[in-house]
């Protein structure tokens, strides 16, 4: 189980980075509609302080006979720059992104992995630290279309990223409900959000989470 893969997926739950344009849809917004939508998205983003949601992550890998399915709960608090994913199945583990640090811990494990985002980006490349909480929708250069299930934002990955990313936003609240990541090597990861709650206080167990006493820290990208 790769911490870099989980990091990449979790970042996409919160931000849409400025990838190059992706393929167009028959329902793609025209220039005026696009500008109005991005302004609306900017306003909606500013009003969001916290997000809580159940998620299902389905990962299809060409070398495996069936998809891998992960379920859990996502917590986000913008003021503290906190992303907290509690994976429940098939294994219980925590991924926390806070103040430029990524923590990965499998429940009851004597060790935890820590990685500094100053040295890695979502694609695992050095020297690029995306701003998760203050990204500008106006900088998004991919295709935007209005479909039956919401707004679809499609981007083609950069040189070191996936081949295609498609994010579906709720038509009213403009929060992500589905993310599909298609890597260049084949397969796909689909993340679906359910029971999304906006601006409700996060549980204390998330805000005050600490590792059990005696847990050994593995600094993944430090000499």
TrEMBL record:
Identification of the protein by name: Outer membrane lipoprotein carrier protein LolA
InterPro entries: LolA/LolB/LppX (IPR029046), OM_lipoprot_carrier_LolA-like (IPR004564)
Coiled-coil ranges from the UniProt annotation: none
Superkingdom per UniProt: Bacteria
Protein's UniProt keywords contain GTP-binding: no
Keywords attached to this entry: Signal
Endpoints of the signal sequence: 1-26
């Amino acid at each position: 189980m790769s911490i870099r893969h989980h990091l990449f997926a979790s970042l996409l739950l919160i931000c849409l980075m400025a990838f190059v344009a992706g393929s167009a849809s028959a329902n793609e917004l025209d220039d005026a509609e696009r500008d109005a939508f991005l302004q609306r998205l900017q306003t909606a983003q500013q009003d969001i302080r916290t997000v809580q949601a159940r998620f299902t992550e389905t990962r299809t890998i060409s070398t495996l006979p069936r998809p891998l399915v992960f379920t859990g709960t996502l917590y986000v608090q913008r003021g503290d720059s906190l992303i907290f994913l509690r994976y429940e199945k098939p294994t219980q583990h925590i991924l926390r992104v806070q103040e430029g640090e990524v923590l990965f811990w499998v429940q009851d494990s004597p060790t935890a992995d820590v990685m500094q985002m100053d040295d890695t980006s979502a694609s695992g490349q050095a020297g690029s630290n995306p701003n998760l909480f203050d990204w500008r929708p106006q900088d998004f250069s991919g295709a935007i279309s209005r479909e039956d299930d919401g707004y679809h934002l499609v981007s083609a990955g950069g040189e070191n990223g996936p081949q295609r990313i498609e994010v579906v936003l709720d038509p009213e609240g403009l929060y992500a409900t589905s993310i599909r990541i298609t890597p260049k090597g084949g397969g796909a990861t689909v993340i679906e959000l359910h029971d999304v709650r906006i601006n409700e206080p996060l549980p204390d167990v998330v805000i005050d989470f600490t590792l059990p006493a005696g847990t050994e820290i593995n600094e993944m990208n430090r000499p």
